[in-house]
TrEMBL record:
Range of residues in the leader sequence: 1-29
DUF305 domain: residues covered: 88-230
A Pfam family matched in the record: DUF305
The species this protein was found in: Kineococcus xinjiangensis
Domain of life: Bacteria
Alphabetical UniProt keywords: Signal
Protein name in UniProt: Uncharacterized protein (DUF305 family)
Keyword Transmembrane: no
Record's keyword annotation contains Signal: yes
Annotated region described as Disordered, given as residue ranges: 30-52
Amino acid sequence: MPRTPTRRALTVLAAATLTAGVGAGAAYAGHRSDAEAASPSPSMMDRPMMDRPMMDRPMMDRPMMDRPMMGGDGHPRMGAFSAEQPFDAQFLDQMSVHHRGALMSTEAMIADSARPELRELAAGMLTSQRAQLDRMLSWRGEWYPDLPPTFPTGEGMMDRPMMGGSMMGKRMMGGSADAEAMYLRMMVAHHRLGVEMAEEAQRRATHPRLRELAASMGAERAAEIEVMESHLAGATAPGRS
């Protein structure tokens, strides 16, 4: 008789999905968090970001066009767009995967949080991103009916290693507060990548409706980043359990 997945298992799975969808964004967030905890000695890292050589900057701080098309695991990197495929199709494919990761993670990790402010955040994100995903899928079929997917659809992503090997699984085995804090940190990085992609679409998309949607997405994600960062600050304030 098959076992029903536990909430902890679903939480780990959601975190893995979010990480797989983010690629550079979540990896950068995890790397920066670990590096800060290790208190690196003064070096290139202490120089302002824009004063560092391009290749010494974290992937998320490089211009889109300076990021490699492929990740270190050989899979296409989200946020990198090829000149050989229509930009609009690539954006729709990538942002659809990006949204699916956010939806799954949000449903599993904060939709039923004990914190009302996180439930409110989840409700808004789920409503908005479901509607946006529906529009993107509709446009993809309408505009490029014969073009094969330009980016992995997300199927099989769970077979890929999670960020940092077992690091994610170990972190997610904590209590619900730990899981929610992890969600917020990861989703901030996830949203930052989404904002960059949306800005790229506003400059490069050929369909006016897509440029309009990208502008709306960028504004919404930027506002949600501010909300999530404020929740993170509140969660780590002295006296909060």
